[in-house]
UniProtKB/TrEMBL annotation:
Coiled coil: none annotated. This is Amino acid ABC transporter ATP-binding protein. It comes from Lentibacillus kimchii. The keyword ATP-binding applies. PANTHER family: AMINO ACID IMPORT ATP-BINDING PROTEIN, ARGININE TRANSPORT ATP-BINDING PROTEIN ARTM.
Length: 240
């Protein structure tokens, strides 16, 4: 689904990504862990061209992102993204938040969009909140709306950048439950997270990033129980 080859990203003279190689198979759930500033968010943002690529190649569903012939909007429509901050439109109702992109970009009718989006709200357990505004919802509910909004574009894969880091602890579980359900349905997912329980239970593979590179990767059991590198061990000791 995604093939990344020797990806480099610099901001001015600062090299942030220093040669990333990685592939994601359809229906795979890949969790990314690593210290703050190691380049996790930048990596994720390169996958749907929220950041330009300095060097290397990223191929998403057969399309090379650096190829001028690639329609960036098409790629973005296929790759849903959920951020730490929910980024909902505050002046729009929940249902309108979901309907906006399908109507404007996918050009489906308001009526069909409304029906589909209501189904998605049901899926994340928020059908009764359709006509509320984001501020009337808890953080966990807002993040579930953000996930439903991303799904409304019927993406082929979903990127999550620390989706539960801004939430009060008691609200984390409801968001992880929605993500787990998505994974069980076969969604391809790339998840930056500090939720090691989630990574262990739902992840097929864990990537440990440090200083702009993937320095260790493997199945969760291996990374968490028997990390090969000292810096992986040090990081895990700090957060577990
Ligand atoms: P992480 O998500 O792992 O915490 P980031 O990808 O956010 O790491 O950041 C990696 C490094 O890139 C940091 O040193 C950060 O300061 C730098 N960085 C990120 N975005 C920008 C930007 N737009 N301009 C300059 N530097 C940036
Ligand atoms: Mg980050």
């Amino acid at each position: 689904m995604i093939q990344v080859t020797d990806l480099h990203k610099s901001f001015g003279n600062t090299d942030v990504l220093k040669g990333i190689n990685c592939g994601i198979d359809p229906s795979e759930v890949v969790c990314v862990i690593g210290p703050s500033g190691s380049g996790k968010s930048t990596f994720l943002r390169c996958l749907n061209l929220l950041e330009s690529i300095t060097a290397g190649e990223v191929v998403v569903d057969g399309r090379s992102l650096a190829d001028p012939a690639t329609d960036i909007n098409h790629v973005r429509a296929e790759v849903g993204m959920v951020f730490q901050q929910f980024n909902l439109f505050p002046h729009k109702k929940v249902i309108e938040n979901l309907m906006l992109a399908p109507v404007k970009i996918r050009k489906i009718s308001e009526k069909e969009a409304r029906e589909r989006c209501l189904t998605l709200l049901e899926k994340v357990g928020l059908a009764d909140k359709a006509d509320q505004y984001p501020q009337q919802l808890s953080g966990g509910q807002q993040q579930r709306v953000a996930i439903a909004r991303a799904l409304a574009m019927e993406p082929k894969m979903m990127l999550f950048d620390e989706p539960t880091s801004a939430l009060d602890p008691e609200l984390v579980g409801e968001v992880l439950a929605v993500m787990k359900q998505l994974a069980n349905e076969g969604m391809t997912m790339f998840v930056v997270t500090h939720e090691m329980g989630f990574a262990r239970e739902v992840g097929d593979r864990v990537l440990f990033m440090d200083d702009g590179m993937i320095v260790e990767e493997g199945i969760p059991e291996k990374i968490f129980s028997d990390p090969q590198l000292e810096r992986t061990q040090e990081f895990l000791n700090k957060i577990l």
